[in-house]
Amino acid sequence: xxxxICVTCATQFAPTxxxxxxCPICEDPRQYVGQEGQSWTSLxxxxxxxxxxxxxxxxxxxxxxxxxxxxxxxxxLIEAPAGNIxxxxxxxxDDDTITAIKKLGxxxxxxxxxxxxxxTVVEWSHAFDGVPVYLHAADREWVMRPDAVIKFWEGDTHxxxxxxxLIRCGGHFEGGTVLHQEPIADQPGALYTGDVIxxxxxxxxxxxxxxxxxxxxxxxxxxxxxxxxxxxxxxxxLHGAFADDVVLNAKEVVRQSAARYLDAIAAA
Length: 268
Fold this sequence. Notes:
By secondary structure, the chain is of the alpha+beta class. It has helices at 24-27, 43-49, 95-103, 121-127, 220-230, 250-267; strands spanning 5-6, 40-41, 51-57, 60-66, 75-78, 85-87, 109-111, 133-136, 150-153, 157-161, 164-168, 177-181, 190-194, 198-199, 206-207, 209-211, 216-217, 237-240, 246-248. The protein is built from six helices and 19 strands. The strands form five sheets. Strands 3-4-5-6-7-8-9 form a seven-stranded mixed beta sheet. β10 (157-161) and β11 form a beta hairpin.
């Protein structure tokens, strides 16, 4: 039995004797099946062809696979007083990565912004003594490898530990989640968003989409809902989904970007 991994989105499925017939996450309009059709790999094959680079990133540590695999997002290890938090995930986990993270203090909890980044999260949890994985219950149907380590939370917010709060924004997915870090000492508040709030090429702006690869925009009410969800929280820095996706003066950037977006779709 093998836990097959979708080559296009990197989602790992529950162990089976044969590959699944399809990947529901890629068949959904927000993602896509590769032009050559559905294909699969395994963690063993990934370990033979890829490695993880681990670099500091303004108050966190970025974990990114090389060469790029699937969507290509990076995970972030966030130092926290009650134990480090892994935000979002990459498919590759190997001995070198585990050793490096343990030297940084390990992981006490994992949370993921939305189903496109679930990847091999169960493997990650098991590698660190079965730490809990917090996913929003609204996205339960997209979990392709169920496991006891997964803890579904409900409602609009969930406190992971003092100073760190999960916020349900919706938008990209019904349970689309961001992580807020309260200001600590001389460090301003931060928001970790995956692509629920997407950092633009021009770092003075962010944007909002239902599907990025298929260029499906979000409606006005969904964009307003995202902005309203984060408005009560103080943050100056925003970390997006990909390498170097860091925005400063972030709260004002989110406000201005939402206003620009809403003006654009109103004029269409």
